[in-house]
């Protein structure tokens, strides 16, 4: 099987979008001796340059689960490749594959790519952009950037992020045009990782999908209305999401004397209640006895086992395209980011209040509210997109349409 990441890079290049030159090394290919050998193996591409990034590129996308090494020089490209290959067997990657039923024997491709520098100057950024809002499915450009930052800054969730509106208008127009092109190609919602180096936009990765349940339903219906896919395809595509739509439409009911201890940004819709766990190991242990909510400054692939065990996640840093948000959406779990809480080894401090680990909280991944205790839960209003999709599913002969 080919590398999903390389196939994405090829698609971006074939669509005429700016992509730094790269080469893909198969799971069992010999490791090149240096950058010169890599450059010689590239098909008509310019020289890789003095520094490269070394990233995983499995046949099935595993976002953030394996190592990425940036700024590698010629003397280091073999050790870096070995390190990325070895991360295929890391506990977090194994946990992710088990959760998503990905075979363990595939191994990973390694993508070596010329570095572009989002931290070069004040006209440089690292960013993530979606063709539609990943929480609602609304058809608008959505994403975040960090100025003067490396390519992994947004996903890592450790740096303050800004909305795409902070980018110069011509760059937003380029992103919007590029995401329209990738949507037409994949016939699906897409998101890209990108870097702006001294005012020039470069694309580093593209993926399709990644929307929460109700957002996936809206996107499927809208794409059918736009003539991108058929109604039958919309029904087939969204059917796995039907069971999650009810959960993602749950919200905390207001007007009941709620003790709202913090407000962040809703990053994956739905409601979860449980005891506070401040480490992933603690979350796994506590989940054996009941529901837990993982509360962290930010999450990384090292937290994969805790995210899998928790009913929901809260982070004090990061935004709606951070690791915590992306993983929570992929699992259909509520997430609140940028919640303004201080995580300590024994609990969580919010302003002048301290909640010890084990205290019960309820989180709302739509409004971003964090409430002390178990809060009453209601439902959002009727979903017209879901109603239409259900009507299509009962009226269409799905076997007769491709």
What's a quick, concise take on this entry?
By secondary structure, the protein is an alpha+beta fold. 31% of the residues lie in helices and 27% in strands.
Provide an overview of this structure:
- 31% of the residues lie in helices and 27% in strands.
- It has 13 helices and 22 strands.
- The strands form five sheets. The chain has an eight-stranded mixed beta sheet with strand order 11-21-20-13-14-15-16-12.
- Strand 15, helix 12 and strand 16 (335-337) form a beta-alpha-beta unit.
- The two termini are 25 Å apart.
- The mean pLDDT is 90.
Provide key terms for this protein.
402 residues, alpha+beta, 8-stranded mixed sheet, 5-stranded antiparallel sheet, 22 strands
What secondary-structure arrangement, pairings included, does this model have?
Blueprint: H1 4-14, E1 22-25, H2 35-41, E2 52-58, E3 68-72, H3 77-86, H4 91-100, E4 108-114, E5 125-130, E6 142-147, H5 153-156, E7 162-163, H6 169-186, E8 190-197, E9 200-208, H7 213-225, H8 231-238, H9 242-248, E10 250-252, E11 260-263, E12 265-268, E13 271-277, H10 280-287, E14 292-296, H11 304-309, E15 312-315, H12 323-331, E16 335-337, E17 342-344, E18 347-350, E19 353-356, E20 360-364, E21 369-372, E22 377-379, H13 384-395
Parallel strand pairs: 13-14, 14-15, 15-16
Antiparallel strand pairs: 1-4, 2-3, 2-4, 5-6, 5-8, 6-7, 8-9, 10-22, 11-21, 12-16, 13-20, 17-18, 18-19, 20-21
């Amino acid at each position: 099987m080919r590398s999903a990441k390389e196939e994405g890079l090829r698609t971006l290049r074939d669509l005429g979008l700016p992509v730094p030159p790269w080469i893909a090394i198969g799971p069992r290919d010999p490791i090149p001796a240096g950058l010169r050998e890599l450059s010689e193996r590239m098909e008509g591409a310019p020289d890789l340059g003095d520094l490269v990034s070394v990233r995983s590129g499995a046949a099935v996308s595993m976002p953030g689960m394996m190592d990425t090494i940036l700024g590698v020089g010629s003397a280091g490209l073999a050790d870096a490749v070995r390190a990325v290959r070895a991360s295929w067997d890391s506990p977090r990657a194994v946990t992710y594959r088990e959760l998503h039923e990905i075979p363990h024997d595939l191994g990973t491709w390694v993508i070596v790519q010329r570095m572009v520098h989002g931290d070069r100057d004040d006209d440089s950024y690292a960013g993530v952009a979606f063709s539609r809002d990943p929480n609602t499915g609304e058809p608008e450009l959505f994403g975040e950037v960090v100025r003067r930052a490396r390519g992994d800054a947004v996903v890592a969730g450790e740096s303050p992020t800004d909305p795409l509106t902070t980018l110069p208008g011509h760059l937003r127009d380029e992103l919007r045009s590029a995401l329209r092109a990738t949507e037409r190609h994949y016939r699906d919602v897409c998101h890209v990782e990108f870097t702006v180096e001294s005012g020039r936009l470069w694309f580093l990765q593209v993926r399709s999908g990644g929307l929460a349940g109700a957002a996936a339903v809206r996107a499927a219906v809208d794409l059918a209305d736009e003539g991108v896919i058929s109604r039958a395809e919309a029904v087939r595509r969204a059917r796995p999401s039907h069971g999650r739509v009810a959960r993602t439409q749950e919200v905390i009911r207001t007007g009941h004397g709620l003790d709202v201890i913090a407000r962040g940004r809703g990053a994956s819709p739905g409601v979860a209640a449980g005891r506070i766990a401040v480490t992933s190991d603690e979350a796994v242990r506590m989940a054996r006895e009941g529901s837990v909510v993982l509360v962290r400054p930010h999450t990384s692939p090292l937290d994969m086992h805790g995210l899998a065990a928790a009913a929901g996640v809260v982070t004090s840093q990061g935004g709606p395209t951070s690791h915590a948000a992306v993983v929570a959406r992929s699992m259909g779990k509520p997430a609140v980011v940028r919640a303004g809480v201080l995580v300590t080894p024994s609990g969580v401090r919010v302003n002048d209040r301290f909640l010890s680990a084990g205290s019960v909280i309820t989180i709302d991944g739509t409004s971003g509210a964090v409430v002390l205790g178990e809060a009453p839960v209601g439902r959002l209003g009727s979903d017209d997109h879901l109603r239409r999709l259900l009507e299509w599913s009962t009226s269409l002969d799905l076997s007769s349409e491709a």
